[in-house]
Amino acid sequence: MPLAGHLIELRKRLVLAAGALVLGMVIAFFITDPILDFVTGPIRQVAEERGKDLVGFTFSSVTAPFDLRMRMAFSIGIFLSAPVWLWQIWAFIMPGLTKKEIRYTVGFVASAVPLFFAGCYVGVLVMPHIIELMAGFTPEGAQNLYNAQDYYDFVFKLMIVIGVSFIIPVFLVALNFAGIMSGRAILKAWRIAILIACLFAALATPAADVVSMLMLAGILIVLYFAAAGLSLLFDKRKHKRQQEFLEEPTV
User: So where does this one cross the membrane (predicted)?
Assistant: First the structure.
């Protein structure tokens, strides 16, 4: 296909992806109420413990409520339209891939997407505990006034960061597939991996929230060793195929 054909194809894919995103945003705009009610649950819990006069979910400007709903609609719309724009990306690059590369890419996406959403779910589980714990450090008589946009940014970024951390083991397996890292090399770095997992968990969760930190670090460590085990298995199969090829009689 000439360059002009690629550009036309790219424009077509971008238009379809953008259309799906807009549709997802429209749908998401009408379901922001239950989602907002869910993510502000920890604030109501803090309000019951400290008193409603000392805790509040605030908007700092006239347009802030609408701005928050638009930001929520955009982020939720990305998730809702993910099947469409992921397929458009895949459909654009697939013609240039070999059958083997297509098989590997499908396996990568099939592993990465569920792990990412699992990480986001863990972020949702950890988030209320973090907010309630941090509110416990508020001095007596002081107020906890949570700015709506800052609060939503905190929740959203926490989900994204933990979601991305969950797919790092998939990248390790992909590097093993590409021949860049062996399974033995991945496993050999287990001490560094555990240290990084613990440091990441400590940064992603408050220092005083030991339970959430240990839970997150434990999941990341298990995923790392699972990636190392899969890489070792793939290396073993690759070595076996090489041995069989070398032992084949030549004519």
Answer: 14-32, 72-93, 105-131, 151-177, 189-208, 214-234
